Amino acid sequence: MDLNGKNVIYAGGFGGIGQACVKELLEKGVQNLAILDLTENKELLEALQKSYPATIIHFIQFDVSKKERITAAFKEAVAKMQHFDVLVNGCGIMTDEHVDLTVEINLLGVIHSTLTALPYMDKSAGGRGGIIVNVSSVAGLEATGLFAIYSATKHGVTAFTRCMADKIYFDRFGVSFITICPGITDTNIFRNAHKKVTFEFAQEPAKIFYKAKLQTAEICAKNMIKVMETCKNGGAYILDIGNIEEVTFPELWKPSFESS
Ligand SMILES: NC(=O)c1ccc[n+]([C@@H]2O[C@H](COP(=O)([O-])OP(=O)(O)OC[C@H]3O[C@@H](n4cnc5c(N)ncnc54)[C@H](O)[C@@H]3O)[C@@H](O)[C@H]2O)c1
């Protein structure tokens, strides 16, 4: 998809990866950009609008853990932009001690945001189709034991996004689904990571992660945009240490049917 002239909603656009991605989208010349986030970053918003006067940038406050706030935010976004072509679900937390909140934000938030967006995009109901990009993690591909709750929610995001890419949905909605699995990226979520483990006694072993190679949010964002431009329905990508690797999922099970 050529992002130039498109209308984009970025949920979590003021986060580390979000900010970097938003800048790349502005570089691509999107027409309207709605940033949905928990708190406004007024200074950044003004600076971005000044640097990219051709794009209309909107901020819509929302809490992705509250279904009614998601509904209201999409309503407001559509009132402001008429339609949108791209949705990025990029909100997330890593705080395993808060089990319910982690599930509410990382998994239920992505599901509700996706299901709220679809009727607006649905080609079979007069919408224009488009892309929904869900930000999972490498921890949504590999069981990452020290962060069991986070990893479980991200596996959920990966599975949900792959399910939504099913041909039966694509043929009806005309919406492509992409899963992004960043590796360790230098943002707030990773800072003090050892304190965010599932069990306190695992804090010391978790410090091993500080020895891992990091990528910057900027390189992650550049690669995210490249992947979005391919618009490959069902594509899942590891974006780690500056590289893009498409994931090939093994078929582990299929139903056995009675022979008639
Ligand atoms: N940084 C990494 O190492 C890494 C690795 C893999 C995946 N990710 C994923 O990338 C995404 C972006 O994370 P990041 O690294 O930029 O971290 P970040 O903490 O900088 O950004 C997280 C964003 O989520 C928003 N958010 C959190 N709770 C919210 C809520 N209740 N309602 C609305 N917005 C809320 C925050 O305001 C922020 O904009 C997350 O989904 C994260 O899980 C990050």
Task: Sum up the structure in keywords.
17% strand, Rossmann fold, eight-stranded mixed sheet, alpha/beta
The number of helices is 8
**Percent strand:** 15-25%
CATH top level?
Alpha Beta
CATH architecture level-2 label? 3-Layer(aba) Sandwich
**Ends apart, CA distance between termini:** 44 Å
Using the CA coordinates, give the radius of gyration: 18 Å
Q: Globular, elongated, flat, extended or rod-shaped: what is the shape?
A: globular
Secondary-structure-derived class: alpha/beta
Low-confidence stretches: none
Regarding quaternary structure, what we see is single chain
Taken in chain order, the helices and strands follow as EHEHEHEHEHHEHHEE
Side-by-side strand order of the widest sheet = 3-2-1-4-5-6-7-8
* CATH T-level fold name: Rossmann fold
How many domains, as an integer?
1
State the CATH superfamily name. Answer: NAD(P)-binding Rossmann-like Domain
Which helices and strands, and how do they pair?
Blueprint: E1 7-11, H1 16-27, E2 32-37, H2 42-51, E3 56-61, H3 67-81, E4 86-89, H4 99-121, E5 130-135, H5 148-164, H6 167-173, E6 175-182, H7 203-206, H8 217-230, E7 236-240, E8 243-246
Parallel strand pairs: 1-2, 1-4, 2-3, 4-5, 5-6, 6-7
Antiparallel strand pairs: 7-8
Helix pairs in contact: 1-8, 3-4, 4-5
Characterise this structure.
With 260 residues, the protein is of the alpha/beta class. The protein has a single domain (7-246), classed as 3-Layer(aba) Sandwich (Rossmann fold). The chain contains eight helices and eight strands. It has helices at 16-27, 42-51, 67-81, 99-121, 148-164, 167-173, 203-206, 217-230; strands at residues 7-11, 32-37, 56-61, 86-89, 130-135, 175-182, 236-240, 243-246. An eight-stranded mixed sheet has the order 3-2-1-4-5-6-7-8, with helices on both faces. A hairpin with a 2-residue loop joins strand 7 (236-240) and strand 8 (243-246). Helix 1 crosses helix 8 (217-230), helix 3 packs parallel to helix 4 (99-121) and helix 4 runs parallel beside helix 5. The mean pLDDT is 97. Nicotinamide-adenine-dinucleotide is lined by residues 12, 14-18, 37-38, 62-65, 90-93, 105, 135, 137, 182, 184-185, 187-190.
